[in-house]
């Protein structure tokens, strides 16, 4: 019983030590702000990293709609279809 409990604790602890990576895409205008904010977040929360690709507002909206990124950015108001 002790061995099963130990294995369960180790198995449940693995996600706590894994790294979280957020991916985003969108407008070129906020790229510097997003990357600087991401670097600041990575310094404060060492297990969290992000990657932002500036591909334009339309590309970011499309990727968010398709679910291929975690977040997006647009330089104007946008309407998301569900």
CATH superfamily of the domain at 20-73: Periplasmic binding protein-like II
Figure out the total of helices: 3
CATH architectural category of the domain at 20-73: 3-Layer(aba) Sandwich
Low-confidence stretches: 1-14
Report what the structure shows:
By secondary structure, the chain is an alpha/beta fold. It has a domain at 20-73: 3-Layer(aba) Sandwich (D-Maltodextrin-Binding Protein, domain 2). The chain is built from 3 helices and 3 strands; from the N terminus they run αβαβαβ. The chain is globular.
Reconstruct the topology from this structure:
Layout: H1 2-17, E1 20-26, H2 31-44, E2 48-54, H3 57-66, E3 71-73
Parallel strand pairs: 1-2, 1-3
Defining key terms:
82 residues; alpha/beta; 3-stranded parallel β-sheet; 3 helices; 49% helix
Summed up, what is this model?
With 82 residues, the protein is an alpha/beta fold. Helix content is 49%, strand content 21%.
């Amino acid at each position: 019983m002790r061995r099963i409990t130990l294995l369960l604790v180790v198995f449940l602890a693995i996600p706590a030590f894994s790294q979280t990576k957020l991916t985003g895409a969108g407008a070129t205008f906020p790229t510097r702000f997003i990357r600087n904010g991401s670097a600041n977040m990575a310094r404060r929360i060492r297990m969290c990293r992000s990657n932002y690709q500036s591909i334009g507002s339309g590309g970011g909206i499309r990727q968010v709609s398709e679910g291929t990124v975690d977040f997006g950015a647009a330089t104007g108001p946008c309407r998301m279809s569900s």
